[in-house]
Specification:
Elements: H1 2-17, H2 32-64, H3 70-73, H4 79-87, H5 93-105, H6 108-117, H7 124-147, H8 154-172, H9 175-180, H10 186-207, H11 215-245, H12 249-278
Helix pairs in contact: 2-12, 5-11, 6-8, 6-11, 7-10, 7-11, 8-10, 8-12
Amino acid sequence: MRNKSAVLHQETAKFITDPIPAGSRHNDKESPSKRGFHLANILGLIFGKQCLFICFVLLTCMTMFPGMTPEAVAHGVTEGDKGYIQESSGTMLLPFVYLGAKHMVTGYDHLLFLFGVIFFLYRLKDVGMYVTLFAVGHSVTLLFGVLMDMGVNAYIIDAIIGFSIVYKALDNMGAYKRWFGFQPSTKIATLIFGLFHGFGLATKILEYNISADGLIPNLFAFNVGVELGQLMGLALILIMMGYWRRSSGFMRHAYTANVVLMMFGFLFVGYQLTGFFNS
């Protein structure tokens, strides 16, 4: 299975920057600018044929439903949970565990990033390593951000989280090795983006002025809930991926799946930046 994954990485990376077969060229030694032109063309064809309909549907939904704000498509807190957080005082471990789990399970940007992270991970050992790095990253900045009262503009953080989805999709397609001649560390990237995801969580909590009475235990309980929610989301993703990988269609559609994943990331980025400039 790992050999198949390596072959797919190699073939998709070649397809991204070298879409024209060698036999159909007048000159095999093309200039970088010519190859860049091919890259732009092929990405345009991919986006046009495979993702235009998805973008149209999502943007139409965002336009038609006023309640579908940028927070709603990222990891915002519902009005009911917002009121509960603001009115709570004292140590309330189980409610905050529930809120953390709910927050993560409904955080589509977090789940899409996790989907990208484990896309080509077949061994549970590797899945555990990357998920742990991601968990450590967002746990550190969640706790640090709230305890030190360090909030970041929610739109900017959510846009960066959207970019993390784009980054991981391109990584899965082998783009960086082909474009830049080296492969950035996927472990370091996962940890760094985990830090940004945690700041997103911290920013949301700070917006609702959580009570200082019982803050630390409640915050830790919320973080435990986030990790439980992440495990639930991860379990569902792994079950779905397990069935898909056993089918003959996985290797055929893996590239397309990552293109669609990248487009979702771009939509998150664009929508959050629109909210930022209009706020």
